Amino acid sequence: MNKDGFTLMEIIIVVAILAILAVIATPAVIKIYNNTKINIVKEQERDIEDAARVFNEDFCHNPISNLYSNYCKPDLDKSVLRKNNDTYYICTNDLVELNYIDHFNFSGNNCSGFVIFNEDENNYEVDKTYLKCGDAYLTYEDVCENDASLCQKYNSILDSCNISKAEDALNCIEDRDC
């Protein structure tokens, strides 16, 4: 018998096999995609932490000039290192303005954030970075899900980050009115 095409049964079997393969492959592809997003966030956090460490070395541990030493005194109005109650931090937008990092976004959302420092007798060490892109914190340790009061505190820190301190600090250096 001479066949010019496929039978209905052959087409149904091929479609069923393709459907089974799609059902098996889709979760794996979604898992790879989600892991990639988490890795991107972790990498951005590491880059920001590295920039904060360099800032810390330049202005806190070994100021490159006496004029710059005011960047790292949280009690001064023009300090880039800030203090909220017992939390010392630097905002990512200040690190961007000081050219320590490039502006970044994630999945089309502009990101903001801050780096928390531990303070030990005016010696500041980087502790943790928090990023917020759009409505959610992108840390792999979800702040708002685990502790509502901490989430509220971090949101207030982010609000304070909307006011640039780096611009004041740079003007302070240029005008020498520190």
Question: How would you summarize the topology of this molecule?
Answer:
Layout: H1 8-61, E1 82-84, E2 87-91, H2 92-97, E3 105-106, E4 109-120, E5 123-133, E6 136-137, H3 143-146, H4 148-161, H5 166-175
Antiparallel strand pairs: 1-2, 2-4, 3-4, 4-5, 5-6
Provide a brief overview of the structure.
With 178 residues, the protein is α+β, with helices and mostly antiparallel strands. The chain has 5 helices and 6 strands.
Strand portion: 15-25%
Q: Which secondary-structure class do the elements indicate?
A: alpha+beta
Largest sheet: 6 strands, antiparallel
Shape: elongated
- Which assembly state applies to the chains in this document? single chain
Count every beta strand, where a strand is a DSSP E run of 2 or more residues: 6
- Radius of gyration over C-alpha positions, nearest whole angstrom: 25 Å
Low-confidence stretches: none
- In N-to-C order, the SSE pattern is HEEHEEEEHHH
Instruction: Report the total helices.
Output: 5
- Estimate the mean pLDDT confidence: 79
Proportion of helical residues: 40-55%
- End-to-end separation in angstroms reads 96 Å
